Amino acid sequence: MMKAMAGLAVLGVLAATAVSWAAPPPEKDRAAVVRGGNEFAFAMFDQLRRQPGNLFFSPYSVSAGLSMTSLGARGETAGQMSGVLHLLEPSRHHVAFAELNRGLHEPSSVRPYQLHVANALWGPPGSPFRPKFLKLVREHYGAPVRQLNFAEDPSASRKTINDWAAEHTSGKITDLLGLDAINPDTTLLLTNAVYFRAAWEQKFSAQATANGAFTVAPGKQVEVPFLFHGGKHGYLDGGSFQALELHYEGNELSMVVLLPKKAAGLADLEESLTEANLARWLVRMTPQRIDVALPKFTATGVFSLKSELIRLGMPLAFARADFSGINGQSNLFLSDVVHKAFISVSEEGTEAAAAGAAIVTKRSVEPPGIPFRAAHPFLYLIRDNRAGCILFLGRLAQPTG
Question: Which of 63, 92, 282, 366 has the largest count of CB atoms under 10 Å?
Fold first, then answer.
């Protein structure tokens, strides 16, 4: 099996802008967009981590959809969205985001992995959208406007969007929109999908996979399959935690695993998780021989992000919004931000389940490596190493498959 993960975000009722855009963006703008996106990722994680159990989402997917929405925001609504999303000024931000998206979305024929990003805008027939808005959404986010009759046939509209989500995530995201997600008052829906599938640069042997104990809570363990591997990987001893980088084939993308040394140390590690700290940890990582024990696991995330975004500082988007940039009127607001994500990790990449214990088979001609035994809750993220962009972010509290 290869590695597959998918994230998908849907935004209720959205927005647009009218500015002239410059291209291509300077390198500093691309770097600022990545840094801002990562800061948003950790701010959103800080909100979501209050929920118990496993956690997995695509901050890149959510950020892309909301950035697209901000094209139509005006006044204080635009200001709040800009602050939460760490946006540059509109004439620079959307050009730089489009450039980042193009870099991530090159054809899989030239890369050993699949990374697919798709956007779509859904509106009722005859919607009076401003041509400038439609043009900018199409140019910078590749999102065509698709017509659906929300008022007369909400059920068929929901099915069409859910089918779109499944198609763009290789069937991993299904039933994105719930039964009540569309109603006669729905004006506009923006969908964003991210799908990723890749093989490990250094594969785990299926013959080495064995069951082991994973501590899910003090005094409570479950038996799960563990992947075992000895090899050179980026590593950091952070004092209270260990950090490990596992590359995917081609070395352009990698998974970073952050493992507290104590089984009860996850909360403190989560508290320290910021964009600045992660950047420092990554710089300090060095190639070392590591004996890895990593649980096989599958995780999903299903979120309504409205409350979290309000707490982060953009309440106007969901109430007294000004999205007049989309149609010249002030009758639009975000009804919700719905996000669904999936990940599966196995011997050859990502497509599997579960978690476990230790002991790595060592080659007789090589000395033992540093033990990295992920046998209790840990954090993990998948990033693009060229841009530094965080695509997926999660917490494994209990392996399932």
Answer: 63
Residue by residue, pLDDT tens for the chain (401 residues) are 444 333 333 333 332 223 334 445 678 999 999 999 999 999 999 999 999 999 999 999 899 889 988 999 999 999 999 999 999 998 899 999 999 888 876 655 567 788 877 788 888 887 788 889 889 988 888 887 888 888 888 899 899 989 988 888 888 888 888 888 887 777 778 787 788 888 899 888 888 899 999 999 888 999 999 999 899 999 999 999 999 999 998 888 999 999 999 999 999 999 999 999 999 999 999 999 999 999 998 888 888 899 999 999 999 998 888 989 988 887 788 888 888 888 888 775 443 211 111 112 122 345 578 999 999 999 999 999 999 999 999 999 998 75
Would you identify the CATH topology of the domain 206-295+353-396?
A: Alpha-1-antitrypsin; domain 1 (2.30.39)
The 3 state secondary structure assigned to the chain is CCEEEEEEEEECCCCCCCCCCCCCCCHHHHHHHHHHHHHHHHHHHHHHCCCCCCEEECHHHHHHHHHHHHHHCCHHHHHHHHHHHCCCCHHHHHHHHHHHHHHHCCCHHHCCCEEEEEEEEEECCCCCCCHHHHHHHHHHHCCCEEECCCCCCHHHHHHHHHHHHHHHCCCCCCCCCCCCCCCCCCCCEEEEEEEEEEEECCCCCHHHCEEEEEEEECCEEEEEEEEEEEEEEEEEECCCEEEEEEEECCCCEEEEEEEECCCCCHHHHHHCCCHHHHHHHHHHCEEEEEEEEEECEEEEEEEECHHHHHHHCCHHHHCCCCCHHHHCCCCCCCCCEEEEEEEEECCCECCCCCCCCCCCCCCCCCCCCEEEECCCCEEEEEEECCCCEEEEEEEECCCCC
